[in-house]
Specification:
- By secondary structure, the protein is α/β, with parallel strands linked by helices.
- Helices cover 60% and strands 7% of the residues.
- The protein contains 21 helices and 7 strands.
- Strands 4-3-5-7-6 form a 5-stranded mixed β-sheet. The chain has a two-stranded antiparallel sheet with strand order 1-2.
- A hairpin with a 2-residue loop joins strand 6 and strand 7.
- Helix 4 runs parallel beside helix 17, helix 7 packs parallel to helix 9 and helix 11 packs across helix 13.
């Protein structure tokens, strides 16, 4: 029989802590899904299963973005002008082409490649933001699909640490959907729809209040930092943002009555809310993830208006940019394996002085196949083929995927060494030897998680030395504030350890003060 959960177990799930501190992001759902995946994992597969919810969320983001662009493109306000004698694309075919372009624009964004592999609450916020976007675009076409998507996404955003964003996006999107004119493919919202949206908003407010998820996150020091915000937006949303701006320019005649044109109003609302949230909370690139599906949507609606010369410029720039990036990755990898060219090998040695490169036949094969596929795609794109409006985004999307794949195959051992705490914790274990327990003081939550996972120890707060917990780990930055208390409890410094790839991150390791030698008494 299964044991009944105790009140302490329930509290630990509703208020997960690390080193006695709650998660700063207040993202309960992230911890719940990750912990549930680990509990369901077979022995030895815990790390892979822990990533499964995040991989699923990324896949749902891609699917939701495609269907959102498709629904918006089916609206009469987004359809191209019909030809006098017919021959224009059918609405469904036109919508599919734009949806393909929107998906390619999302895949091409550098921000998605940079952050999509992380197991963080912000990837879940991206997924639920895309789900909310999907729900709002389908509310007038497939009512129950839209209602369920909106309810699940707003509640998911709330439990992922973004209750304010959930309410702003949901309420604003509902207002836009209410103002949307009715037509054969989109019905007006009924009073039942509005009542359900109000109940969903109330549920999010109640849930956030009951679980204490509301926080004041405004960062006044960042409000005037326009340069950093513009720089972040420029690279994080590249190459979709130039197309999104071009789309707004070419569709500018509809901006004066934007509430009648949901293919502009909905994505623009998502972009404004997300950019505003990122700016007011401290210019965070992770928050900008939620804006990527909306920016990709605006970029998709620029495709029918691109001239052939501009499309060719995009192709050539993309070809040069991603080919140079791929070549750089290969050259550095060869330098790591052989020592030639000498300069890249010296740079790797300087940045990761204790790193030992390793060769993986599987990773090399995957990287080689991806590079050959890129070459074949370039040959196809430069050939004479039937024109399609999404062809301008094939190379940007494929180039971003290529570089991401090369980094996660050829450079994966180096990236793991540079970003992981495993080498750092190995140096700690080499000093202390196998130990079931460490005491800690003044360390960060990532450092604590690294000790628990890589050193396989239990952590206890600072107290006197114990027989089964005879080592104390202290972050050197916080040592001046703790030194007197540490000495008073009977600890003595043993050594200091520096993280191999970060000379500013150091541990001070303490052991118990040795007992004075006994002096034999004379008779």
């Amino acid at each position: 029989m299964l044991a009944q959960p105790t009140p302490g177990d329930i509290v630990s799930w509703l208020k997960p802590t690390l080193l006695g501190q709650v998660d700063d992001n207040l993202a309960l759902l992230t911890h719940w899904l990750g912990a549930l995946a680990i509990k369901l994992a077979p022995t030895g597969w815990e790390a892979a299963f822990a990533r499964a919810p995040f991989v699923t969320m990324l896949a749902l983001t891609l699917v939701a973005t495609w269907y959102s662009v498709y629904a918006l493109a089916r609206h009469p306000a987004a359809q191209p002008v019909a030809f006098a004698f017919g021959g224009e694309a059918k609405p469904a075919d036109y919508a599919r082409a734009l949806a393909d372009g929107g998906l390619l624009a999302l895949l091409a964004c550098l921000g998605l490649a940079h952050r999509s592999h992380e197991t963080t609450p912000f990837l879940m916020q991206l997924s639920f933001g895309a789900g909310l976007f999907f729900g709002l675009t389908h509310l007038g076409r497939k009512r129950w699909h839209g209602r369920l998507a909106i309810a699940a996404s707003m509640l998911g955003l709330t439990l992922s640490g973004a209750p304010s964003m959930a309410l702003m996006l949901g309420v604003g999107g509902a207002v836009i959907s209410t103002a949307m004119p009715a037509d054969p493919t989109h019905r007006r919202l009924s009073m039942l729809d509005l009542g359900l949206l109000a109940l969903i908003g109330l549920l999010c407010i109640t849930t956030a209040g009951a679980l204490d998820l509301w926080r004041w996150r405004i960062a006044p020091h960042a409000l005037l930092n326009v340069h950093d915000m513009a720089q972040l937006m420029a690279w994080f949303t590249w190459p979709a943002w130039p197309l999104a701006i071009w789309s707004l320019w070419r569709w500018r005649g509809q901006l004066s009555q934007i509430w009648l044109h949901p293919h502009l109003a909905l994505p623009l609302w998502f972009v404004i809310v997300t950019f505003g949230t990122s700016w007011f909370t401290g210019i965070s690139d992770r928050v900008l993830l939620v804006a990527l599906p909306a920016i990709a949507t605006l970029a998709a609606f620029a495709l029918p208006t691109l001239k052939r010369s501009l499309s060719a410029l995009i192709d050539w720039f993309t070809l040069l940019f991603f080919s140079i990036c791929a070549l750089t990755i290969w050259v550095v990898w060869v330098a790591m394996q052989t020592g030639f060219p000498a300069q890249p090998a010296a740079n790797v040695k300087r940045l990761a002085p204790e790193f030992v490169p390793e060769f993986s036949a599987t990773a090399f094969t995957l990287a080689l196949l991806a590079t050959l596929a890129w070459a074949g795609l370039v040959k196809w794109r430069t050939g004479a083929h039937r024109s399609a409006i999404w062809k301008s985004l094939v190379l940007p999307a494929s180039g971003a995927v290529l570089c991401w794949l090369l980094l996660t195959t050829l450079w994966l051992p180096l990236l793991d060494y540079a970003r992981s705490y495993a080498p750092f914790m190995k140096k700690v274990v080499d000093v202390t030897g196998p130990s079931p327990c460490y005491q800690y003081a003044g360390i960060t939550k990532p450092q604590g998680a690294g000790l628990i996972y890589h050193a396989k120890v239990t952590l206890k707060p600072l107290e006197k030395p114990l027989p089964d917990c005879a080592w104390l780990i202290v972050d050197q930055q916080n040592l001046p504030l703790l030194s007197q208390r540490i000495e008073s409890l009977g600890w003595t410094e043993q050594t200091r350890i520096t993280r191999p790839t970060d000379r500013f991150e150091n541990f001070v390791i303490f052991g118990p003060v040795p007992a004075p030698p006994t002096v034999p008494t004379s008779r």
